[in-house]
Amino acid sequence: MSSHSWEGLAQLLVAEGFFVVAPNLLGHASRRGTDYRVSAFAEDLRPYFVMDTSYDVIIAHSFGGPVALSLLPFLPKTKETTIILVDPVLEVAEEKLKVNRNWFLTEMANVRTTEEHMTENPAWSRRDSVLRALGVSMCDPTVVEVFRQNSPWSFSGLFKNIPPNINITVLVSDPKFSDRCYLEHVPRDVERLNARVLTGIGHWIQYERPDAIMDVIPLSRAKFLSATVTSNHMLLLLLIFNPQTMLLELSRAPHSDADGSVSTVIRGVLQRVIDTPHVLTLPTLFHTIPFVVSTSQWGSPTASRRALLIHGMTMSSSSWEGIAQLLAAEGYFVVAPNLLGHAFRRRSTDYRVSAFAEDLRPYLAMDMSYDETTIVLVDPALELTEETVKVNTNWFLEEMANVRTAEEHMAENPSWSRRDSVLRVLGIAMCDSTVVEVFQQNSPWSFSGLFKNIPPNVKIMVLVSDPQLTNICHLEHIPHDMERLNARVLTGTGHWIQYERPDAIMDAILLPSATLLLKKEMSIRFIQLLPTTDTAERPATCPSPTLPVGYTSTRATIQPKGAAETTETARYTYQYRRLQTTQLDRR
Predict the structure, then answer these.
(1) What does the radius of gyration of the chain's CA atoms come to, in whole angstroms?
(2) How far apart are CA 309 and CA 317, in angstroms?
(3) Any residues with CB less than 8 A from the CB of 568 and at least 6 apart, and which?
(4) Are 50 and 135 in contact (CB under 8 A)?
(5) How far apart are CA 205 and CA 156, in angstroms?
(6) What are the start-end ranges of the H helices in 305-457?
(7) Stated pTM of the model
(8) How far is residue 28's CA from residue 8's CA, in Å, rounded to a whole number?
(9) What CA–CA distances, in Å, run from 444 to 18, 310, 340?
(10) Residue 368, CA distances (Å) to 231, 259, 305, 361, 529 in order
């Protein structure tokens, strides 16, 4: 799975006032590792607990259960914390480990479609099924080493280490529908430990009975009530461990409470959201972070260089994965918001380009300014005729109504990796159909005039695709007589420059400076929001907006002040070798 798999539950928590963090575990969501012992997973998550960072609630599903129990020694000794283990895999026989390993390899080699998941699991919403398929697609096959490296599989003994300030509840699926967790594996004579079997519910409790999880959370105490925080106050967070889903899927009866919605409100996050395997959320950072929406992050928040990536139509923050990894490897802290109407964010009624820009203003607030900024516009849609607008509207509606598979995208775009194709499918599947209103509400579509507003501290590079391959951006739409504005046509490269020529984007970035990468129609208007001066001294740490689901998704190294450097496997030491990467990812 990936951090996205918590989408539905995270939205419920955000509505209750929680700030939610969902890391991507080693071997998941395009992360890689070599050490897959449970202790290594726990060690990889330690940066989330440095400097006495605490959480009101920790929720862990499946394989995340043993990982959460292994984190008990790292938790603050005085903070009252509720831990909810959702059908954790505590004890597995040797023979079963072999079966599980083979099943996972088959699942990753033959990724099932959203429709197949919905047919097999009637209680799942389309959103849940989309995110399940995504998690499998982005999982590294080497993660099956978790079975061999943790043999014998026995973790019930970890319950004996429950600190006096921790309360644990174990939610167990119905043994008629799932064989992951058994009540007899949970000790009955341990204080502050309770267990409950959910009759008629299978392994995916967060999809089938999210209310059962919410009922365990002490909302009256843990709810974050204030929108104003100072550095002397601790934010209340929920840390959700992204599970490695285990064991074969069994058929199960539908549940009447299943949530069928696909685009629930994700807004309401008090600070930020993380979609990466390692983005630290230190209390000392929080007081400078404004009220923001769902976001993905890569790299260390303490990095001196920052990059803001803005995706295009029918995409999501995850679509920047490859570029973000390259930037993180160069020492950047990377933030990629999800735009209005995208990535299961609530549908909007205002899709003017100015509304998109206004929605992103929190990323420039509270000293989050970008002095000496390089802006790279990647094949931006600057001028469109009325006829083209109509064609685009119909094309996007058709794409969203009939989402193509990753294989179809790879066949059409031979230079795309499997990861790129999967993320393209994800972006379309998570997009609200009302977003096509962007064309009608921005008519006439003409934004070249916004180049006249370039501040003196901003330099802009426009990368234009080959006009023989695409007609999105044209060189004649870019003024030729303006300082700090340059353009370059990439011969032989189509509209998806970040997939086909990431090196061209990296070459356009002045690495010592802050960077904004903007894609397509949401780009130019954002220039008007940039500060023209920045004389105030900024803090050493970089406050970050966040990632998907009123929560954040993370992928990167965290090197917090006062904390040891994270392990090599926790980093994205991503070196760009285009040919090798393409061959590897298209396996």
Answers:
(1) 23
(2) 8
(3) none
(4) no
(5) 20
(6) 321-329, 353-359, 386-401, 406-412, 418-429, 437-441
(7) 0.63
(8) 19
(9) 41, 23, 21
(10) 17, 37, 12, 10, 12
Q: Name the token pair of 48.
A: 């989330």
Distance of CA 468 to the CA centre of its chain: 34
DSSP state of 347: P
pLDDT tens, residue by residue, 220-268: 543 332 222 222 222 233 344 333 222 222 222 222 222 222 222 222 2
Paired strand residues for 489: 464
Helix (H) / strand (E) containing 285: helix 283-286
As a whole number of angstroms, the distance between CA 11 and CA 8 comes to 5
Q: Which two tokens stand for residue 184?
A: 């007899």
- Where along the chain do its domains lie? 3-241, 303-539
**Using CA atoms, how far apart are residues 561 and 16, in angstroms rounded to an integer?**
31
Peptide bond into 283 cis (omega under 30): no
Q: In 379-521, at which residue ranges do the beta strands (DSSP E only) sit?
A: 383-384, 445-446, 458-465, 485-490, 514-519
Task: Show the tokens assigned to 475.
Answer: 């060189």
Whole-angstrom Cα distance, residue 292 to residue 298? 17
* Residue 181 and residue 87 in contact, taking contact as beta carbons nearer than 8 Å: yes
Query: Can 3-241 and 303-539 be said to share one CATH topology?
Result: yes
Average of per-residue pLDDT values in the chain: 74
> What is the full DSSP assignment across 301-344?
TT-SEEEEEE--TT--GGGGHHHHHHHHHTTEEEEEEPPTTSTT
Chain centroid to CA 57 = 20
Closest Cα to residue 42, out of 59, 60, 20, 66?
66
Q: How far apart are alpha carbons 118 and 126 in whole angstroms? A: 7
Q: What is the pLDDT of residue 179?
A: 86
Q: Judge whether 167 and 83 are in contact, CB under 8 Å.
A: yes
- Burial 185-207, CB ≥16 within 10 A → b, else e: bbeeeeeebebeebeebbbbbbb
Question: Of 18, 77, 10, 47, which is closest to residue 301 (Cα–Cα)?
Answer: 47
Amino acid (1-letter code) at residue 332: Y
DSSP 223-258: ----S---TTSPPPEEEEEPP---S--------TT-
Identify whether the C-beta of residue 339 lies closer than 8 Å to the C-beta of residue 345: yes
Q: Is the pLDDT score of 319 beyond 50?
A: yes
Q: How many CB atoms lie within 10 A of CB 297?
A: 32
Q: What is the sign, positive or negative, of the torsion defined by CA atoms of 556, 562, 565, 570? A: negative
Statement: 3-241 belongs to CATH 3.40.50.300: no
- Cβ atoms of 514 and 305 within 8 Å: the answer is yes
Helices 126-137 & 7-15 angle (0-180, nearest 10) = 120
Contact criterion met (CB below 8 Å) for 38 and 155? yes
Q: How many helices (H) and strands (E) does the chain have?
A: 20, 19
Strands 383-384 and 445-446, sheet pairing: antiparallel
CATH topology assigned to domain 303-539: Rossmann fold (3.40.50)
Structure confidence at residue 305 (pLDDT) = 86
Task: Name residue 53's amino acid.
Answer: T
Of 440, 436, 444, 351, whose CA–CA distance to 396 is shortest? 436
Tens of pLDDT along 6-35? Answer: 888 888 887 888 878 888 888 887 777 889
Which distant-in-sequence residues (6+ apart) come within 8 Å of 225 by Cβ? 17
**C-alpha to C-alpha distance for 14 and 318, rounded to whole angstroms:** 20
